[in-house]
Design a protein that fits this description.
mainly alpha, UraD-like, 169 residues
Amino acid sequence: MIDRTAFVDRFGGVFEHSPWVAERALDAGLAKPLTVQSLHAAMVEAFRAADYAEKLQVLRAHPDLAGRLAIAGELTASSKAEQASAGLDRLSVAEHTRFLALNALYIQRFGFPFIIAVRGLDKNDIISAFESRIGSTPEQEFATACAEVEKIARLRLDSLLPGETYDSH
């Protein structure tokens, strides 16, 4: 049997500040040994089964890209590493001002921060996606943001379990 506390401690942050996703995946039953792929599938299933308000809570738990939490040094370790991988910790003043303006416009339009799996992207890719997605309908953008959260979760699991399985008792 998988130790619940150890499991949630290790995987509770895969979906930003939302350990309930890991808890529900575990409660639904997990085949052993767990691989990155099977664990991701179980967590995505738990996330997708959540109601709209719960999903919105997950979206709102994500920090703004290059936003106030980054400036204050208050990002989670995962978010900090992800944003740094895209160069968002090295923006010029003009670029940072652009990100802040896009963040504000996006949040005003959709009610949650812009979410994109930044690994493999650079600041120009992200700005381009920001500008493109700002024209989406709220329904389209909610679906896109949820899909991006699922991609981020997979990347985080890849980092937590590089080439291994999880078998905690």
